[in-house]
Amino acid sequence: MGNYHLHFFTLIIVIYSLIFSLLPLNLHAKPPPNPVQCNDTLCTLHNAYGLWGDRRDCVSPTISYPTTEEQLRLAVANATKNKLKVKVVTKFSHTIPKLACPSSQSDKTMLISTELYSSGIDIDVKKMVVTADAGVSLRDLINKVEGAALSLVAAPYWEGVTVAGFISTGAHGSSWWGKGGAVHDHVVGISLVVPGKESQGYAKVLMLEGSDPLFKAAKVSLGVLGVISKVKLALEPAFKRSITYSFTKDDNLEEEYVNHAKKYEFGDITWYPSKYTTVYRYDNRVPLNSSGDGLNDFLGFQSQSVLVSAATRAMEKTFESTKDEKSKCTMATTFMAYKKLIANGLKNNKLLFTSYPVIGTQANIQTSGSCLYSSHVRQDLTCAWDPTIKGLSFYESTAIFSTTNFGDFVRDVKKLRDLISPQKLCGIDIYNGFLVRFIKASDAYLGQSEDSIVVDFNYFRADDPKTPRLNQDVLEEIEQMAFFKYGAKPHWAKNRNLAFLGVPKKYPNWSKFIDAKKQLDPQGMFSSEWSDEILYGKEIKREDGCALEGLCICSDDRHCSPSKGYVCKPGFLYYEARVCRFSQGEVSNLILQ
């Protein structure tokens, strides 16, 4: 594709996106499809992206929709009595690993959905706590809390989660201040339904809180301890926040990140390595009477035109198939400039971005996800990754570094960039570069044992799992550098399977979590082979092509795609890495054969 045509099509995408970002807020996308679809014999569970890591279906013959805690207990009792494997699902299902699949032996499984168990939100204003049913959405919780002149201090940036879901997988915002940015560190109580003896009606409800070791296990449980029925969260008096994005060169990122976290309560950093650019988020709370009614309507979570999403995907697929690095970089440059123009979705007075700072309530600033909602539905608007359209498809890797290791990781990525070419990192910058956030040390057994830095990066995912990606060797080297050279921990709800290899050794309290699991679920009713792969860091059987989507680390060319010229090679900088690299010589050999 010629450069003129590239600029034209990219400009059209940006113009369309700009138009839709200016639409009235009550014009929303059609809601995402329900993650559970049932026929006469089976219910099939998908995640919100329509694909699991191994691309295999997750099925069960039975699903229960409790509406009360007692109905939830009876569902667990029925499963206990009949020796069924059980997993809990929500109405969102945004987890990337296959944690919610009960077993490949589907005839002895059961799903429990919290979709209809979502009405109870009880606020104690005097004690400044809120107790919510497991299926309550984050947005409903925040709106109810703010209506009582209180604020939930920590929440993930994406609001397409439920109360039980966001604590089960360690969801977080960004902060080293106070109790920190991880939501589970603001939890003061959990009601958990677990198997019981026949004399207990085959299931019982435990109330966990305080210094109880089971509470420390349940705060980040991955759904393998039991079924969370209610969560109690600490609150603070309502407040507003003031945000400014500062675009600068990335020269001092490896030195400045600690100072930034200490200076700004909710600060984060976005690093676009191919553009040598960092974006510092200056974000602190201000008094509730401060002037401003701003909104964080993050661009990536806004309703998008089906045409725009499909065109963006089609362009990126073309660049991938033609190995057109230059056009990918032009696309990344254009998108970054657009995000700078509109402050990545921040809006003054809930309408447009006009100037910094953007000041708004905690309810409107902390989290976003306007593409989720369906009032005045327009069928031509969706979340960009809606699996029912030919829109975006991507993977998200998330590495959690110790404070000391992160600076060295940044230095290595810069060395790698300079050794190869910054163009080979444009695929990350098309999405959101490296998003850098901060979370504090936690007493949760599967939380972080020290103050940590969380780094997210998204990248293209092929329609066909056997299709290699452009410059995938570079991203694989960065991924392996993070998790194995620097010992980063994986985010439990994200990542490709390889990120979890050896994960038990990275958590000092991992054995305490396993002890709690044996106590609460001695028969392993809430475990499956898929959740075991994640929790125990198990390596799967190596098969042809298994490294293409991170199901394994290659040790042989067949784990890549030699028929398409991708063979297993060492990393450029981190020589211990084993990556799938395109080799023109390999293609030539195939042609000669």
Gist of the model:
28% of the residues lie in helices and 22% in strands. It contains 15 helices and 27 strands.
What does this 3D model show about the protein?
The chain is of the alpha+beta class and 593 residues long. It has 3 domains: 3-29 and 239-500, Vanillyl-alcohol Oxidase, Chain A, domain 3, CATH 3.40.462; 32-238 and 501-539, Uridine Diphospho-n-acetylenolpyruvylglucosamine Reductase, domain 3, CATH 3.30.465.10; 541-593, no CATH class. The protein is 28% helix and 22% strand. The protein is built from 15 helices and 27 strands. The strands form 8 sheets. It has an 8-stranded antiparallel β-sheet. A 5-stranded antiparallel β-sheet has the order 7-8-12-10-11. It has a 3-stranded antiparallel β-sheet with strand order 1-2-3, with no helix packed on it. α6 runs antiparallel to α10. The protein starts with a helix and ends with a helix.
Notable features of this structure?
single chain, 593 residues, alpha+beta, Vanillyl-alcohol Oxidase, Chain A, domain 3, Uridine Diphospho-n-acetylenolpyruvylglucosamine Reductase, domain 3, 3 domains, 8-stranded antiparallel beta sheet, 27 strands, 22% strand, disordered N terminus
Low-confidence stretches: 1-13
- Give the helix tally: 15
Largest sheet: 8 strands, antiparallel
Q: How big is the Rg?
A: 23 Å
Give me the count of strands.
Answer: 27
Alpha-carbon distance between the two ends: 31 Å
